[in-house]
Amino acid sequence: xxxxxxxxxxxxxxxxxxxxxxxxxxxxxxxxxxxxxxxxxxxxxxxxxxxxxxxxxxxxxxxxxxxxxxxxxxxxxxxxxxxxxxxxxxxxxxxxxxxxxxxxxxxxxxxx
Length: 112
Fold this sequence. Notes:
Low-confidence stretches: none
Largest sheet: 5 strands, antiparallel
Helix content: 25-40%
Number of domains: 1
Strand content: 35-45%
CATH topology: TATA-Binding Protein
Order of helices and strands: EHEEEEH
Distance between the termini: 19 Å
């Protein structure tokens, strides 16, 4: 498992769009599996979750990338991205290259 946590600035809707497009265009086998959007009754707090998958040539399996964007003040967005599923072992993790490569796509999008 590989993880990225970063604070972004700007529009939450724009970041969701950039991340979706960037992940899907970053790999031929990438897909958006599902997503959820939550907004508080007063409209101040928002949370967007996206789950992506793609085929990992390094591990000959599929890996997932879960992205959560959280905003409770204008222009400040907390982003957490966690990739998983790239190991081939049954009881311990080996060959996590696919997970790390999928997370690298997120690093390129958020620019940090």
